[in-house]
Amino acid sequence: MTLIRQEDFIQSIADALQYISYYHPLDFIQALNVAYQKEESPAAKDAMAQILINSRLCAEGHRPICQDTGIVTVFLKVGMDVQWASQLSITDMVNQGVRQAYSHPDNVLRASILKDPAGKRINTQDNTPAVVHMELVLGDKVEVEIAAKGGGSEAKSKFVMLNPSDSIVNWVLKTVPTMGAGWCPPGILGIGIGGTAEKAMLLAKEACMESIDIQDLIAKGPTNALEELRLELYEKVNALGIGAQGLGGLTTVLDIKIKDYPTHAANKPVAIIPNCAATRHTHFVLDGSGPAEFTPPRLEDWPSITWEAGATARRVNLDTVTPAEVATWQLGETLLLSGTMLTGRDAAHKRLADMIARGESLPVDFTNKFIYYVGPVDPVRDEVVGPAGPTTATRMDKFTEAMLAETGLIGMIGKSERGQVAIDAIKKHQAVYLMAVGGAAYLVSKAIRKSKIVAFEDLGMEAIHEFVVEDMPVTVAVDVQGQSIHQIAPKIWQSKIGKIPVTLG
Questions:
Q1: Do 117 and 74 meet the contact criterion of CB atoms below 8 Å apart?
Q2: pTM of whole model > 0.90?
Q3: CB under 8 Å to 226, separation ≥6 — which residues?
Q4: pLDDT in tens, 206-236
Q5: Span 277-305, pLDDT tens digits
Protein backbone atom coordinates (compact mmCIF):
# COMPACT_ATOMS: atom_id res chain seq x y z
CA MET A 1 0.00 0.00 0.00
CA THR A 2 1.47 3.34 -1.12
CA LEU A 3 0.61 6.54 0.75
CA ILE A 4 0.45 9.67 -1.40
CA ARG A 5 0.50 12.87 0.61
CA GLN A 6 -1.59 15.88 -0.35
CA GLU A 7 1.35 18.29 -0.21
CA ASP A 8 3.52 16.04 -2.42
CA PHE A 9 0.84 15.72 -5.08
CA ILE A 10 0.08 19.47 -5.15
CA GLN A 11 3.77 20.38 -5.25
CA SER A 12 4.37 17.93 -8.11
CA ILE A 13 1.57 19.46 -10.18
CA ALA A 14 2.83 22.99 -9.54
CA ASP A 15 6.46 22.12 -10.27
CA ALA A 16 5.50 20.30 -13.47
CA LEU A 17 3.56 23.30 -14.80
CA GLN A 18 6.38 25.71 -14.04
CA TYR A 19 8.85 23.32 -15.68
CA ILE A 20 6.91 22.92 -18.92
CA SER A 21 6.20 26.65 -19.15
CA TYR A 22 9.86 27.33 -20.00
CA TYR A 23 11.40 23.99 -21.03
CA HIS A 24 10.49 22.47 -24.37
CA PRO A 25 10.68 18.67 -24.40
CA LEU A 26 14.14 17.75 -25.69
CA ASP A 27 12.68 15.57 -28.45
CA PHE A 28 10.84 18.62 -29.80
CA ILE A 29 14.01 20.73 -29.88
CA GLN A 30 15.91 18.00 -31.67
CA ALA A 31 13.15 17.41 -34.22
CA LEU A 32 12.68 21.12 -34.90
CA ASN A 33 16.42 21.58 -35.37
CA VAL A 34 16.49 18.74 -37.91
CA ALA A 35 13.61 20.40 -39.78
CA TYR A 36 15.36 23.78 -39.58
CA GLN A 37 18.56 22.39 -41.06
CA LYS A 38 16.80 20.91 -44.09
CA GLU A 39 14.25 23.70 -44.68
CA GLU A 40 14.57 25.39 -48.09
CA SER A 41 11.91 28.08 -47.67
CA PRO A 42 13.61 31.25 -46.38
CA ALA A 43 10.45 32.47 -44.63
CA ALA A 44 9.82 29.14 -42.90
CA LYS A 45 13.49 28.78 -41.95
CA ASP A 46 13.42 32.28 -40.45
CA ALA A 47 10.32 31.41 -38.39
CA MET A 48 11.88 28.19 -37.09
CA ALA A 49 15.05 30.07 -36.14
CA GLN A 50 12.99 32.48 -34.05
CA ILE A 51 11.18 29.59 -32.34
CA LEU A 52 14.47 27.83 -31.49
CA ILE A 53 16.11 31.02 -30.22
CA ASN A 54 13.02 31.82 -28.16
CA SER A 55 13.12 28.32 -26.69
CA ARG A 56 16.69 28.73 -25.49
CA LEU A 57 15.98 32.20 -24.06
CA CYS A 58 13.05 30.77 -22.09
CA ALA A 59 15.20 27.93 -20.76
CA GLU A 60 17.80 30.45 -19.64
CA GLY A 61 15.38 33.01 -18.22
CA HIS A 62 12.73 30.65 -16.83
CA ARG A 63 9.94 32.55 -18.58
CA PRO A 64 7.07 31.20 -20.70
CA ILE A 65 7.69 29.91 -24.21
CA CYS A 66 4.34 31.37 -25.26
CA GLN A 67 2.19 34.13 -23.80
CA ASP A 68 -0.71 31.68 -23.92
CA THR A 69 0.32 29.51 -20.99
CA GLY A 70 -2.55 27.16 -21.71
CA ILE A 71 -5.45 25.32 -20.19
CA VAL A 72 -4.14 22.58 -17.91
CA THR A 73 -5.04 19.05 -18.98
CA VAL A 74 -4.18 16.09 -16.75
CA PHE A 75 -4.41 12.36 -17.37
CA LEU A 76 -4.13 10.36 -14.15
CA LYS A 77 -3.68 6.63 -13.75
CA VAL A 78 -4.27 5.90 -10.09
CA GLY A 79 -3.20 2.53 -8.75
CA MET A 80 -5.94 0.71 -6.82
CA ASP A 81 -3.47 0.03 -4.02
CA VAL A 82 -2.80 3.73 -3.48
CA GLN A 83 -3.98 5.40 -0.29
CA TRP A 84 -4.30 9.16 -0.01
CA ALA A 85 -3.33 11.33 2.96
CA SER A 86 -5.43 14.30 1.89
CA GLN A 87 -8.31 16.50 2.94
CA LEU A 88 -8.97 17.43 -0.70
CA SER A 89 -10.31 15.46 -3.64
CA ILE A 90 -7.86 14.57 -6.40
CA THR A 91 -9.35 17.19 -8.71
CA ASP A 92 -9.16 19.83 -5.97
CA MET A 93 -5.49 18.94 -5.39
CA VAL A 94 -4.80 19.34 -9.11
CA ASN A 95 -6.45 22.76 -9.07
CA GLN A 96 -4.47 23.83 -6.02
CA GLY A 97 -1.30 22.86 -7.87
CA VAL A 98 -2.44 24.96 -10.84
CA ARG A 99 -3.03 27.97 -8.58
CA GLN A 100 0.43 27.68 -7.09
CA ALA A 101 2.09 27.32 -10.48
CA TYR A 102 0.29 30.16 -12.23
CA SER A 103 0.89 32.66 -9.41
CA HIS A 104 4.56 31.82 -8.82
CA PRO A 105 6.18 35.23 -8.15
CA ASP A 106 9.34 34.46 -10.14
CA ASN A 107 7.44 33.24 -13.20
CA VAL A 108 3.86 34.44 -13.23
CA LEU A 109 1.84 32.58 -15.87
CA ARG A 110 -1.09 34.04 -17.76
CA ALA A 111 -4.56 33.30 -16.42
CA SER A 112 -6.64 32.46 -19.49
CA ILE A 113 -9.56 30.43 -18.11
CA LEU A 114 -13.05 31.94 -18.17
CA LYS A 115 -16.08 30.74 -16.23
CA ASP A 116 -19.62 31.12 -17.54
CA PRO A 117 -18.30 30.35 -21.05
CA ALA A 118 -21.67 30.86 -22.77
CA GLY A 119 -22.46 34.02 -20.83
CA LYS A 120 -20.35 36.69 -19.15
CA ARG A 121 -17.03 34.83 -19.69
CA ILE A 122 -15.38 35.97 -16.47
CA ASN A 123 -11.70 35.23 -15.88
CA THR A 124 -11.17 32.93 -12.89
CA GLN A 125 -7.88 34.78 -12.20
CA ASP A 126 -5.84 31.66 -11.34
CA ASN A 127 -6.19 29.53 -14.50
CA THR A 128 -8.39 26.97 -12.74
CA PRO A 129 -10.13 24.68 -13.15
CA ALA A 130 -7.98 22.14 -14.94
CA VAL A 131 -9.44 19.43 -17.17
CA VAL A 132 -8.82 16.16 -15.35
CA HIS A 133 -9.22 12.62 -16.67
CA MET A 134 -8.78 9.72 -14.21
CA GLU A 135 -8.47 6.00 -14.61
CA LEU A 136 -8.17 3.38 -11.85
CA VAL A 137 -5.52 0.80 -12.72
CA LEU A 138 -3.72 -2.07 -11.04
CA GLY A 139 -0.70 -1.10 -8.96
CA ASP A 140 0.46 1.12 -6.13
CA LYS A 141 1.60 4.26 -7.94
CA VAL A 142 0.07 7.39 -9.46
CA GLU A 143 1.08 8.10 -13.06
CA VAL A 144 0.58 11.66 -14.27
CA GLU A 145 0.63 13.10 -17.78
CA ILE A 146 0.17 16.83 -17.70
CA ALA A 147 -0.04 19.43 -20.45
CA ALA A 148 -0.64 23.16 -20.76
CA LYS A 149 -2.61 23.34 -24.00
CA GLY A 150 -2.69 26.62 -25.91
CA GLY A 151 -6.05 27.95 -27.08
CA GLY A 152 -4.87 28.65 -30.62
CA SER A 153 -3.96 25.05 -31.33
CA GLU A 154 -6.94 23.66 -29.40
CA ALA A 155 -9.25 25.80 -31.54
CA LYS A 156 -8.12 23.86 -34.62
CA SER A 157 -9.25 20.48 -33.28
CA LYS A 158 -11.36 18.49 -35.73
CA PHE A 159 -13.68 15.50 -35.49
CA VAL A 160 -15.53 13.41 -38.03
CA MET A 161 -17.62 10.26 -37.97
CA LEU A 162 -16.50 8.54 -41.15
CA ASN A 163 -18.22 5.63 -42.81
CA PRO A 164 -16.34 2.37 -42.24
CA SER A 165 -15.17 2.31 -45.88
CA ASP A 166 -13.97 5.94 -45.93
CA SER A 167 -10.28 6.81 -46.13
CA ILE A 168 -8.70 8.35 -43.03
CA VAL A 169 -5.81 9.62 -45.13
CA ASN A 170 -8.11 11.46 -47.53
CA TRP A 171 -10.02 13.08 -44.68
CA VAL A 172 -6.82 14.23 -42.94
CA LEU A 173 -5.37 15.67 -46.17
CA LYS A 174 -8.63 17.50 -46.83
CA THR A 175 -8.91 18.75 -43.25
CA VAL A 176 -5.40 19.95 -42.37
CA PRO A 177 -5.42 22.83 -44.91
CA THR A 178 -8.69 24.07 -43.39
CA MET A 179 -6.95 24.38 -40.02
CA GLY A 180 -4.84 27.25 -41.32
CA ALA A 181 -1.74 28.30 -39.39
CA GLY A 182 -3.41 29.30 -36.13
CA TRP A 183 -2.09 26.14 -34.48
CA CYS A 184 1.47 27.43 -35.03
CA PRO A 185 3.10 24.74 -37.14
CA PRO A 186 5.48 23.00 -37.20
CA GLY A 187 4.14 20.82 -34.43
CA ILE A 188 2.56 17.45 -33.81
CA LEU A 189 -0.78 16.12 -34.98
CA GLY A 190 -2.43 13.84 -32.43
CA ILE A 191 -4.97 11.55 -34.09
CA GLY A 192 -7.54 9.41 -32.31
CA ILE A 193 -9.34 6.62 -34.16
CA GLY A 194 -12.20 4.52 -32.87
CA GLY A 195 -14.25 4.18 -29.72
CA THR A 196 -17.05 6.74 -29.62
CA ALA A 197 -17.01 10.42 -30.48
CA GLU A 198 -15.69 11.54 -27.10
CA LYS A 199 -13.23 8.62 -26.89
CA ALA A 200 -11.65 9.54 -30.23
CA MET A 201 -11.06 13.10 -28.99
CA LEU A 202 -9.46 11.82 -25.78
CA LEU A 203 -7.24 9.48 -27.77
CA ALA A 204 -6.09 12.37 -29.95
CA LYS A 205 -5.27 14.49 -26.89
CA GLU A 206 -3.33 11.65 -25.28
CA ALA A 207 -1.47 11.05 -28.54
CA CYS A 208 -0.20 14.66 -28.43
CA MET A 209 1.70 13.80 -25.25
CA GLU A 210 3.79 11.04 -26.79
CA SER A 211 7.46 11.53 -27.65
CA ILE A 212 8.54 12.43 -31.19
CA ASP A 213 10.06 9.38 -32.84
CA ILE A 214 9.04 9.50 -36.50
CA GLN A 215 12.64 9.50 -37.76
CA ASP A 216 13.33 6.30 -35.81
CA LEU A 217 10.19 4.77 -37.33
CA ILE A 218 11.32 5.78 -40.82
CA ALA A 219 14.70 4.18 -40.17
CA LYS A 220 13.39 0.84 -38.86
CA GLY A 221 10.24 0.62 -40.94
CA PRO A 222 6.62 -0.04 -39.89
CA THR A 223 5.58 -3.23 -38.13
CA ASN A 224 1.80 -2.70 -38.05
CA ALA A 225 -1.03 -0.84 -39.78
CA LEU A 226 -0.95 2.16 -37.41
CA GLU A 227 2.76 2.69 -38.02
CA GLU A 228 2.15 2.47 -41.77
CA LEU A 229 -0.59 5.09 -41.39
CA ARG A 230 1.72 7.37 -39.38
CA LEU A 231 4.39 7.24 -42.08
CA GLU A 232 1.93 7.84 -44.91
CA LEU A 233 0.35 10.81 -43.16
CA TYR A 234 3.72 12.28 -42.13
CA GLU A 235 4.89 12.29 -45.75
CA LYS A 236 1.63 13.52 -47.25
CA VAL A 237 0.80 16.22 -44.69
CA ASN A 238 4.29 17.68 -45.14
CA ALA A 239 3.79 17.48 -48.90
CA LEU A 240 0.89 19.93 -48.53
CA GLY A 241 3.58 22.63 -48.34
CA ILE A 242 1.91 24.59 -45.52
CA GLY A 243 5.22 24.98 -43.71
CA ALA A 244 6.24 26.78 -40.54
CA GLN A 245 3.64 29.39 -39.51
CA GLY A 246 1.80 28.66 -42.78
CA LEU A 247 4.47 30.51 -44.77
CA GLY A 248 5.12 27.60 -47.16
CA GLY A 249 7.89 25.06 -46.74
CA LEU A 250 9.00 21.47 -46.36
CA THR A 251 7.94 20.83 -42.75
CA THR A 252 4.41 21.30 -41.44
CA VAL A 253 4.44 18.45 -38.90
CA LEU A 254 7.33 17.09 -36.86
CA ASP A 255 5.44 13.89 -36.15
CA ILE A 256 2.08 12.19 -36.50
CA LYS A 257 0.98 10.38 -33.34
CA ILE A 258 -1.97 7.98 -33.46
CA LYS A 259 -3.88 6.10 -30.77
CA ASP A 260 -6.80 3.82 -31.52
CA TYR A 261 -9.55 1.91 -29.72
CA PRO A 262 -12.12 -0.70 -30.80
CA THR A 263 -15.28 0.84 -32.24
CA HIS A 264 -18.79 -0.05 -33.36
CA ALA A 265 -19.08 -1.84 -36.70
CA ALA A 266 -21.15 1.03 -38.12
CA ASN A 267 -18.69 3.74 -37.10
CA LYS A 268 -15.21 5.10 -37.79
CA PRO A 269 -14.71 8.09 -35.42
CA VAL A 270 -11.58 10.13 -36.21
CA ALA A 271 -10.26 13.14 -34.30
CA ILE A 272 -7.32 15.49 -34.88
CA ILE A 273 -5.85 17.67 -32.15
CA PRO A 274 -2.69 19.60 -33.04
CA ASN A 275 0.11 20.44 -30.64
CA CYS A 276 1.73 23.75 -31.52
CA ALA A 277 5.31 25.01 -31.64
CA ALA A 278 5.00 25.74 -27.90
CA THR A 279 4.27 22.10 -27.13
CA ARG A 280 4.22 21.71 -23.33
CA HIS A 281 3.80 18.40 -21.58
CA THR A 282 5.58 16.09 -19.18
CA HIS A 283 5.12 12.76 -17.43
CA PHE A 284 5.92 11.72 -13.88
CA VAL A 285 5.17 8.97 -11.39
CA LEU A 286 4.48 9.30 -7.67
CA ASP A 287 5.40 6.31 -5.50
CA GLY A 288 4.95 7.76 -2.03
CA SER A 289 8.59 8.79 -1.58
CA GLY A 290 7.89 12.52 -2.01
CA PRO A 291 7.15 15.05 -4.74
CA ALA A 292 8.27 14.43 -8.30
CA GLU A 293 11.66 15.74 -9.41
CA PHE A 294 12.22 17.34 -12.81
CA THR A 295 15.69 17.35 -14.32
CA PRO A 296 16.36 20.42 -16.46
CA PRO A 297 17.86 19.82 -19.89
CA ARG A 298 21.34 21.18 -20.53
CA LEU A 299 21.64 24.43 -22.45
CA GLU A 300 24.10 22.58 -24.69
CA ASP A 301 21.12 20.57 -25.93
CA TRP A 302 19.83 23.61 -27.82
CA PRO A 303 21.33 24.29 -31.25
CA SER A 304 23.52 27.34 -31.66
CA ILE A 305 21.41 29.53 -33.93
CA THR A 306 21.43 33.26 -34.51
CA TRP A 307 18.78 35.37 -36.18
CA GLU A 308 19.25 38.46 -38.29
CA ALA A 309 16.61 40.39 -40.16
CA GLY A 310 18.78 40.57 -43.27
CA ALA A 311 20.03 43.45 -45.37
CA THR A 312 16.70 43.84 -47.18
CA ALA A 313 14.60 44.32 -44.02
CA ARG A 314 12.79 47.65 -43.98
CA ARG A 315 12.78 49.75 -40.81
CA VAL A 316 9.43 51.37 -40.02
CA ASN A 317 8.71 54.24 -37.62
CA LEU A 318 5.22 53.58 -36.33
CA ASP A 319 4.92 57.13 -35.00
CA THR A 320 5.26 58.70 -38.45
CA VAL A 321 4.09 55.96 -40.82
CA THR A 322 1.46 56.98 -43.37
CA PRO A 323 -1.02 55.10 -45.56
CA ALA A 324 1.10 56.06 -48.57
CA GLU A 325 4.14 54.38 -47.04
CA VAL A 326 2.11 51.30 -46.13
CA ALA A 327 1.07 50.99 -49.78
CA THR A 328 4.71 50.43 -50.79
CA TRP A 329 5.20 47.37 -48.60
CA GLN A 330 5.64 44.13 -50.53
CA LEU A 331 4.05 40.77 -49.72
CA GLY A 332 6.52 38.62 -47.76
CA GLU A 333 8.78 41.56 -46.94
CA THR A 334 10.42 41.67 -43.48
CA LEU A 335 9.78 44.84 -41.49
CA LEU A 336 11.40 46.02 -38.27
CA LEU A 337 8.85 48.05 -36.34
CA SER A 338 9.80 50.81 -33.92
CA GLY A 339 7.55 53.27 -32.13
CA THR A 340 4.08 53.12 -30.60
CA MET A 341 1.44 50.48 -31.23
CA LEU A 342 -1.81 49.58 -29.49
CA THR A 343 -2.93 46.10 -28.50
CA GLY A 344 -6.29 44.41 -28.45
CA ARG A 345 -7.79 40.98 -28.91
CA ASP A 346 -11.23 39.31 -28.69
CA ALA A 347 -12.85 40.99 -25.69
CA ALA A 348 -11.43 44.42 -26.48
CA HIS A 349 -12.57 44.20 -30.11
CA LYS A 350 -16.07 43.19 -29.03
CA ARG A 351 -16.26 46.15 -26.68
CA LEU A 352 -14.90 48.55 -29.32
CA ALA A 353 -17.35 47.24 -31.92
CA ASP A 354 -20.28 47.75 -29.52
CA MET A 355 -19.13 51.31 -28.81
CA ILE A 356 -18.84 52.06 -32.53
CA ALA A 357 -22.34 50.65 -33.13
CA ARG A 358 -23.72 52.93 -30.41
CA GLY A 359 -21.91 55.96 -31.81
CA GLU A 360 -19.81 56.42 -28.68
CA SER A 361 -16.32 57.91 -28.57
CA LEU A 362 -13.54 55.36 -28.28
CA PRO A 363 -11.14 55.45 -25.31
CA VAL A 364 -8.05 55.54 -27.55
CA ASP A 365 -7.19 57.14 -30.90
CA PHE A 366 -6.39 54.58 -33.61
CA THR A 367 -5.69 57.11 -36.37
CA ASN A 368 -2.77 55.87 -38.50
CA LYS A 369 -1.99 53.30 -35.79
CA PHE A 370 -1.35 49.57 -35.77
CA ILE A 371 -3.10 47.17 -33.42
CA TYR A 372 -1.27 44.10 -32.15
CA TYR A 373 -3.41 41.07 -31.35
CA VAL A 374 -1.86 39.99 -28.05
CA GLY A 375 -2.66 39.16 -24.44
CA PRO A 376 0.71 39.42 -22.70
CA VAL A 377 1.97 37.66 -19.59
CA ASP A 378 2.38 39.92 -16.55
CA PRO A 379 5.95 41.18 -16.08
CA VAL A 380 8.25 40.00 -13.29
CA ARG A 381 11.40 41.54 -11.86
CA ASP A 382 12.70 44.26 -14.21
CA GLU A 383 10.61 43.27 -17.26
CA VAL A 384 8.62 45.89 -19.14
CA VAL A 385 6.15 43.19 -20.13
CA GLY A 386 6.10 39.42 -19.97
CA PRO A 387 6.15 37.15 -23.03
CA ALA A 388 3.96 38.81 -25.64
CA GLY A 389 3.62 36.75 -28.79
CA PRO A 390 0.74 37.17 -31.24
CA THR A 391 -2.64 35.50 -30.97
CA THR A 392 -4.61 34.00 -33.86
CA ALA A 393 -5.72 36.83 -36.13
CA THR A 394 -8.74 35.12 -37.69
CA ARG A 395 -10.71 35.55 -34.48
CA MET A 396 -10.67 39.31 -35.15
CA ASP A 397 -11.81 38.96 -38.78
CA LYS A 398 -15.42 39.87 -38.09
CA PHE A 399 -14.34 43.15 -36.47
CA THR A 400 -11.92 44.19 -39.21
CA GLU A 401 -14.31 46.12 -41.47
CA ALA A 402 -15.64 48.26 -38.61
CA MET A 403 -12.16 48.90 -37.19
CA LEU A 404 -10.76 50.00 -40.55
CA ALA A 405 -13.83 51.99 -41.58
CA GLU A 406 -14.50 53.82 -38.32
CA THR A 407 -11.27 54.25 -36.35
CA GLY A 408 -8.50 55.38 -38.70
CA LEU A 409 -6.56 52.16 -38.09
CA ILE A 410 -4.15 51.34 -40.95
CA GLY A 411 -2.71 48.00 -39.95
CA MET A 412 -2.91 44.90 -37.78
CA ILE A 413 -0.35 42.46 -36.38
CA GLY A 414 -1.10 38.88 -35.38
CA LYS A 415 -0.30 35.28 -36.18
CA SER A 416 -1.56 32.98 -38.92
CA GLU A 417 -3.74 33.78 -41.92
CA ARG A 418 -6.70 36.12 -42.36
CA GLY A 419 -10.06 34.95 -43.64
CA GLN A 420 -11.55 36.32 -46.84
CA VAL A 421 -13.86 38.76 -45.06
CA ALA A 422 -10.83 40.39 -43.40
CA ILE A 423 -8.77 40.33 -46.60
CA ASP A 424 -11.59 42.05 -48.46
CA ALA A 425 -11.74 44.76 -45.79
CA ILE A 426 -7.96 45.20 -45.84
CA LYS A 427 -8.00 45.65 -49.63
CA LYS A 428 -11.02 47.97 -49.53
CA HIS A 429 -9.41 50.30 -46.99
CA GLN A 430 -5.84 49.98 -48.33
CA ALA A 431 -4.63 48.67 -44.97
CA VAL A 432 -2.14 45.90 -44.24
CA TYR A 433 -1.80 42.81 -42.07
CA LEU A 434 1.58 41.90 -40.60
CA MET A 435 2.47 38.52 -39.12
CA ALA A 436 4.67 37.91 -36.08
CA VAL A 437 5.94 34.41 -35.26
CA GLY A 438 3.74 32.39 -32.95
CA GLY A 439 5.78 30.38 -30.46
CA ALA A 440 8.42 33.11 -30.03
CA ALA A 441 6.70 35.14 -27.31
CA TYR A 442 9.69 35.78 -25.04
CA LEU A 443 11.83 36.80 -28.01
CA VAL A 444 9.12 39.24 -29.15
CA SER A 445 8.91 40.76 -25.65
CA LYS A 446 12.57 41.70 -25.87
CA ALA A 447 11.61 44.26 -28.54
CA ILE A 448 9.07 45.99 -26.25
CA ARG A 449 10.63 48.95 -24.47
CA LYS A 450 7.57 50.42 -22.71
CA SER A 451 4.10 49.14 -21.85
CA LYS A 452 1.06 50.62 -20.16
CA ILE A 453 -2.65 49.87 -20.04
CA VAL A 454 -4.65 52.62 -21.77
CA ALA A 455 -8.19 51.16 -21.81
CA PHE A 456 -10.41 48.35 -20.50
CA GLU A 457 -8.20 47.48 -17.52
CA ASP A 458 -10.99 45.26 -16.17
CA LEU A 459 -10.34 42.82 -19.04
CA GLY A 460 -7.06 41.71 -17.50
CA MET A 461 -4.69 40.29 -20.09
CA GLU A 462 -7.21 41.37 -22.78
CA ALA A 463 -6.98 45.06 -21.83
CA ILE A 464 -5.73 47.54 -24.45
CA HIS A 465 -2.05 48.28 -23.90
CA GLU A 466 0.19 50.85 -25.50
CA PHE A 467 3.53 49.31 -26.44
CA VAL A 468 6.64 51.16 -27.48
CA VAL A 469 8.74 48.74 -29.53
CA GLU A 470 12.16 48.75 -31.13
CA ASP A 471 12.99 46.63 -34.17
CA MET A 472 10.11 44.19 -33.70
CA PRO A 473 10.32 41.75 -36.65
CA VAL A 474 7.19 41.07 -38.70
CA THR A 475 6.31 39.82 -42.19
CA VAL A 476 3.90 41.50 -44.59
CA ALA A 477 1.22 38.81 -44.76
CA VAL A 478 -1.63 40.70 -46.50
CA ASP A 479 -0.73 43.75 -48.57
CA VAL A 480 -2.91 46.65 -49.69
CA GLN A 481 -3.84 44.76 -52.87
CA GLY A 482 -5.35 41.99 -50.74
CA GLN A 483 -2.67 39.45 -51.60
CA SER A 484 -2.21 36.88 -48.82
CA ILE A 485 1.06 35.05 -48.26
CA HIS A 486 -0.86 32.27 -46.53
CA GLN A 487 -2.95 31.67 -49.65
CA ILE A 488 -0.05 31.89 -52.10
CA ALA A 489 3.05 30.38 -50.44
CA PRO A 490 1.70 26.92 -49.45
CA LYS A 491 0.48 26.35 -53.03
CA ILE A 492 3.92 27.26 -54.38
CA TRP A 493 5.65 24.86 -51.99
CA GLN A 494 3.10 22.11 -52.55
CA SER A 495 3.90 22.40 -56.25
CA LYS A 496 7.68 22.40 -55.56
CA ILE A 497 7.44 19.29 -53.39
CA GLY A 498 5.39 17.73 -56.16
CA LYS A 499 3.85 14.80 -54.32
CA ILE A 500 0.29 16.14 -54.25
CA PRO A 501 -1.36 17.77 -57.29
CA VAL A 502 -2.13 21.46 -56.81
CA THR A 503 -3.78 24.16 -58.84
CA LEU A 504 -1.93 27.46 -58.55
CA GLY A 505 -4.66 29.55 -60.18
A1: no
A2: yes
A3: 258, 260
A4: 999 999 999 999 999 999 999 999 999 999 9
A5: 889 999 999 999 999 999 999 999 999 88
Q: How far, in Å, CA of 156 to CA of 159, rounded?
A: 10
The residues that bridge with 361 in the sheet, in sequence order, are none
Residues 44, 250: Cα–Cα separation, whole Å: 8
Cα separations (Å) of 200 from 144, 268, 269? 20, 9, 6
> Do 29 and 315 meet the contact criterion of CB atoms below 8 Å apart?
no
Q: How far apart are CA 43 and CA 248, in angstroms?
A: 8
State the DSSP string of 52-87: HHHHHHHHHHT--SSS---EEEEEEEEETTEEEE-S
Containing 282, the helix (H) or strand (E) segment is: strand 281-286
* Nearest alpha carbon to residue 370 among 488, 220, 476: 476
What tens digit of pLDDT does each residue of 239-264 get? 999 999 999 999 999 999 999 999 99
Q: What CATH number belongs to 314-489?
A: 3.20.130.10
The mean pLDDT value for 383-388 works out to: 95
Beta-bridged to residue 342, according to DSSP, are: 371, 466
What is the Cα–Cα distance from 498 to 476, expressed in whole angstroms?
26
Categorise residue 32: left if φ over 0, alpha if ψ from -120 to 50, beta otherwise.
alpha
* CA atoms of 464 and 462, how far apart (whole Å): 7
The three-class DSSP label of residue 422 is helix
Nearest to 380 by CA among 62, 31, 119, 46: 62
* Burial tier of 299 (Cβ tally within 10 Å: 0-12, 13-18, 19+): exposed
- Average pLDDT for residues 12-39, to the nearest whole number? 97
What are the residue ranges of CATH 3.20.130.10 in the chain?
314-489
Has residue 501 got a pLDDT over 90?
A: no
Q: What is the dihedral of CA 250, 251, 257, 258, to 10 degrees?
A: -40
Q: What stretch of H or E contains 442?
A: helix 441-445
